[in-house]
Amino acid sequence: MILVTGGAGFLGSHVVDALLDDGEQVRVLDVLLPAAHRERPDYLDPRAEWLERDVRDDDAVVRAVQGVSAVCHQAAMVGLGVDLDDITEYAGINDLGTAVLLRAMARAPVPLVLASSMVVYGEGRYRCAEHGIVRPGPRAPEQLDAGQFEPPCPQCGRALAAEAVPEDAPLDPRNVYAATKVAQEHLCAAYARETGAPVTALRYHNVYGPRMPRDTPYAGVASIFRSALEAGRVPRVFEDGNQTRDFVHVRDVARANVAALRSGTPGAFNVASGTPRSVGEMARTLAGGEVEVTGEWRAGDVRHVFASPARATSELGFSAVEDFAAGMGEFREAKLRA
Fold it and tell me: What's the predicted TM-score (pTM) here?
């Protein structure tokens, strides 16, 4: 029996399906948080055992972990949110919830796969022609207002070249959500050290695909663009549209979880397609045409962050297989979750 927390969500439900299709018995713990679910999803697989409870509920979590052989921890509040009024909710669900789960697991330790995120890196990896690998600081509002979106070298001010981020890159969270994901990784590492149970942290990059929620302050960019299309509007792309990400299909993310459980290999792994694309390109591919590039910016956003998936390939045996254009076409037609 494998426990999947957050198994009713966008990512978690695909993990549940992949595990069931792989022949595993699955138990799900999910509170159906109103910020993520306006109604009970119709895609919940009846083959799984469902516990509709909060990951912060000690009694529910103790019950949920009984008799399980591994845990996939997908439960989290995601996205940039609205403002700092969200900070207690993020910390409560993501970090307190993780602590409650780990305390229950410590009584009979089992392997853990943690849903982490590329946001733990902050800005991506940059190389200066003169100074080599450098870490630019947060972009200044006055620079962004002037349309200067590329972070300069912090030492000489010259232009930088973005590179794929490896797992040993420094962690540099730039917003509340990112800070909670770093804290989750550290809490889970403490569990691993204390119990000897393996912990695999999967750092998801920009995930898209069926079952994404409609546009909310907690939605990802793909969901926001898809919601605009459904409302008859063209996607509005911030900055100049040339910011780069790695867009990975949700079915590939589910496969990565199955691979991590099979291998039991501890450590942190990028879960990515390995092909960086601009946000503008993603929006145009999803829309099947032109989009609106606004020049607007959001505090906490980063310019370039894309990954090297080489470690996941070599150590977990995972490589993304979904085609980008086909996946975006499927997503364009997929029903958005209420």
Answer: 0.93
CA 11, 223, 122, 182: dihedral to nearest 10 degrees? -30
pLDDT tens, residue by residue, 128-170? 999 999 999 888 999 999 999 999 999 999 999 999 999 999 9
Residues pairing with 79 in the sheet: none
Of 106, 259, 262, 119, the residue nearest 187 (C-alpha): 106
SS3 assignment, position 307: strand
By C-alpha distance, which of 63, 5, 66 is closest to 31? 5
Is 177 designated active site?
Answer: yes
- Distance, in Å, from the CA atom of 27 to the CA atom of 45, rounded to the nearest integer, reads 11
- H helix intervals, 74-199: 87-90, 97-105, 141-145, 176-195
pLDDT tens digits for range 124-134: 999 999 999 99
Return d(Cα 206, Cα 222) in angstroms, integer: 8
Residue 208, amino acid:
Y
Longest dimension (CA), the chain: 59
Q: Which two structure tokens, joined as six digits, stand for 167? A: 């797992």
Mapped onto helix, strand or coil, the DSSP state of residue 127 is strand
CB neighbours of residue 231 within 10 Å: 9
Q: Which of 177, 191, 208, 218 is catalytic?
A: 177
Q: Work out the average pLDDT over 236-263.
A: 96
Closest CA to 195 of 140, 127, 125, 266: 266
Q: Contact, 265 vs 81, CB < 8 A?
A: no
Which helix (H) or strand (E) segment holds residue 206: the answer is strand 206-208
Which pair of structure tokens corresponds to residue 330? 């499927």
**Phi and psi torsions of 38, nearest 5°:** -85, -15
| Integer CA distances (angstroms), 253 to 81, 206, 230, 234, in order | 23, 10, 25, 28
